[in-house]
C-alpha cells in the first residue's frame, strides 16, 4: 500500500476518534453561564430546554468505547499497512494463484504464524477429511444413491460452481445447463468427474477455420436450424449443406450429432450454449466461440470433486 493510502486511512480514522474525545470533554463542561438544572430560555410547543449535563453512564460508555477502539487498532491491523502488535492476519495477503496460496500456508506453518483462515481450514480438514476419504473410497455408482453425500455435493456445488452454472445448475448463455441431460464431453459419471477434475477448454475458430464466405453464412445457419429439427427454409438449408460439407462435419459429424471426445456440440438435440436464435447461431459460426472451465483437482482435491460429480450426475439422472 502506498504512503498516500496509508495516510488516507490513518489520519481520518484518528481524527474521528480524537474528535469524539474532544466533543465529549467539551459537552461535559458547563460553559453556558447558566446553573445546571436551570432554564436555557428556550421553549417550543410547551417543552422547555434545561441546562442538564450528559448522563454519566452515557459518557462513561463512550469513553470505554474510545479506549477499546484505540487498543484494538494498536493490537490488530486496521491503520493502513500497520500489522498490529499481535501480527494477526485474517488471510494470506498478496496471493494471486493457487500455488502462491499453498506456498504462503507452508511458510506460515514453518514460522508458526498461521492466519485465522488457515487455522480454520486446518481445523475443518481434521474434522471432515475422514468423511471425504470415505466418500472417495465409494464408487460413484454407489455414491449417487447416498442422499447425505448428495446433500454435501449440493452444498459444495453452491459454494464453488453456482457462480457460473447457477444455483439451480441450469446455466446461462455461455455456461452449460447441467440439469438437462445434454453433455458436450459425455454425461457418464467418469466423464463428469474428468471434466471437473481437469477442466475443459472448448474452442471453435471463426467459420470453423474453413474457406466459408460471409455470403454462405445465412445458408449454413439455416442448415444448422434444419439439423435441430426446427422449421426452416428448405432451399436455403440445401445451399447451407454444401458449406457444412466443407469441413463442419469433421467435428460435428455428418448427421450433426457432435463428438464428445472433442467437445463438439450436438446440433440435433435442441440444446444451445450460446443461444438458439438464428442471429446467435450465425454469430457463433462467423466469430467462433471460446469457452473454458478451470480444473478443480488442485483447488478442491479429488475427494470433494468425487462428491460433486455424483451430485451433478444426479441432477439429470433422477
UniProtKB/TrEMBL annotation:
Subcellular localization, as worded in the UniProt entry: Cell inner membrane
Presence of the UniProt keyword Transport in the record: yes
Pfam families given in the database record: Cytochrome_CBB3, FixP_N
Note accompanying the cofactor annotation: Binds 2 heme C groups per subunit.
Species annotation: Shewanella intestini
Swiss-Prot/TrEMBL cofactor(s): heme c
Membership in a protein family: Belongs to the CcoP / FixP family.
Domain Cytochrome c residue range list: 148-228, 235-316
Name of the molecule in the record: Cbb3-type cytochrome c oxidase subunit
Transmembrane segments: 7-26, 57-76
Record's keyword terms, sorted: Cell inner membrane, Cell membrane, Electron transport, Heme, Hydrogen ion transport, Ion transport, Iron, Membrane, Metal-binding, Oxidoreductase, Repeat, Respiratory chain, Transmembrane, Transmembrane helix, Transport
The encoding gene: ccoP
